[in-house]
Amino acid sequence: MLQPVAVGSKQLADYTHICGRELIAEVRELAEPLQGSRVVHVSATAFGGGVSEILYTLVPLMRDVGLDCEWQVIYGREEFFNATKLLHNALQGAPQDLDDEQWMTWQQYNEMNARELSGGWDVCLIHDPQPAAMFRLVPEKAKGWLWRCHIDLSTPNEQTMGRLLPYLQEYPEALFHMREYVPQGMKGKVHVVPPAIDPLTPKNMALSPEDAAFVCSQFGIDVDRPLMCQVSRFDPWKDPLGVIDAYRLVKETFPAVQLALVGSMASDDPEGWDYFNATIAHADGDPDIHILNNFNNVGAIEVNAFQSHSDVMVQKSTREGFGLTVTEGIWKARPFVGGSVGGIPLQIEDGVTGFLVSSAEQCAERAVEILEDPALGKFLGRRGKEHVRAQFLSPRYLRDYLLIFNALREA
Predict the structure, then answer these.
(1) Residue 271 class from Cβ within 10 Å (0-12 exposed, 13-18 middle, 19+ buried)?
(2) What is the pairing mode between strands 142-148 and 227-231?
(3) What pLDDT was estimated at residue 100?
(4) Sign of CA dihedral 171, 173, 178, 180
(5) Please, which residues bridge with residue 148 across strands?
(6) Of all helices (H) and strands (E), which one includes residue 137?
(7) Hey, which bits of 298-388 come out as E strands?
């Protein structure tokens, strides 16, 4: 058996005051014909990163509306996760491809995990490239199969995509965040379904300004001075070094500004520590740069506090599948400066719900603009929050899955 993940329980009704009765009623109506359907989500890890955060909400909500839903995690050792991290980066455009031995490692672990997957599912959802060979290996174990992609495939390493694509093409259904991410040659039905955040988790629930300031002060932040903050994995695509460069430019105008770089280290990201250390080196001992991760007791509440207390939220990515940390920051009604890449422009309308930038210099200019004009920051924050409420909260995401499941059932 693959490793089951314990997810707790959630009630769809609890979201009514945030998302409105109309959407909640639509979700319940869509779930009615699916009562008792056996659904399994298969992913690489149970913590760290957006996929696991999504599933900790999506799976219990699927159960609440009557589906027999489980989440299972594949087995993998360091050799496998080293190979899949390389695979992930190559699919987002990095020049280095896996060598033959690494592809063999990926294949062997997929074969082992496919054997361990139990059968009899109505729907099996495979998340991302790590377990992508599952459908080809054991198609008989589920009636319906979906491959869910959470990364930016718009400009992949062509050699890597050439090796992986035959496995993806065979899936009857595939889901992507954006139309631009769909690779040429997909034979099954393609759905464009952006992800969403859970507004009721400790990371996203309302936190008073006093509580947010208190938590930030515990980590050495001077809560009476302006704060820039990026919440993300320590990953070259998230460009924390570029954020430090932007902060240094802002400091020329606002000497009191501070920077917090807050991230979690995931079990399937072995290069994360290397980039974390590179970020510390780039900070060069600046006492106003605070570099924190989940090993510094930074959990969901602490991330919420940093986002809620920030004067400027940043996500200066150079590649971004979607950017749930962007959604989270905007949901806190904070003015947001994001890289003009991937799924970030879906969330930020430049000058309306935040600012889009493509360099450290532009990032610094927009941050200075916000710090000089608090009324502008409030305007962007309010508009952004309403955009997230309408488009990027969990009940909408659940609805989109139920629409797909109903279509599968009727096919």
Answers:
(1) middle
(2) unpaired
(3) 97
(4) positive
(5) 127, 175
(6) helix 134-137
(7) 312-315, 336-339, 355-357
| pLDDT tops 70 at residue 267 | no
pLDDT digits (tens, 9 = 90+) for 313-332: 999 999 888 999 999 999 99
Q: Across-strand partners of 38?
A: 68
List 290's β-bridge partners, or say none: 260
pLDDT for the residue 265:
75
Task: Please give the structure tokens belonging to residue 322.
Answer: 């979607």
Residue pointed to by tokens 């027999």: 68
Is-contact 81 106, C-beta < 8 A?
A: no
Q: What is the mean pLDDT of the chain?
A: 95
* Amino acid symbol at 63: R
Query: What is the rounded distance in angstroms from the CA atom of residue 225 to the CA atom of residue 245?
Result: 19
Confidence band, pLDDT 50/70/90 cuts, at residue 233: confident
H helices present in 198-350, as ranges: 209-217, 240-253, 272-283, 300-309, 324-331, 344-347
Q: How far apart are CA 134 and CA 74, in angstroms?
A: 11
Q: How far is CA 324 from the centre of its chain?
A: 4
Cα–Cα distance, 407 to 133 (Å, whole number): 24
Output b/e per residue, 17-52; b: 16+ Cβ within 10 A: eebeeebbebbbebbeebeebbbbbbbbbbebbbbb
What is the rounded average pLDDT of the residues 10-20? Answer: 97
Sheet holding 336-339, edge to edge: 289-293, 258-263, 227-231, 312-315, 336-339, 355-357
Where do we find the tokens 């980039």? 275
Structure-token pair, residue 183: 């690779």
Look at residue 11 and tell me whether its pLDDT is greater than 90: yes
pLDDT at 230 over 90: yes
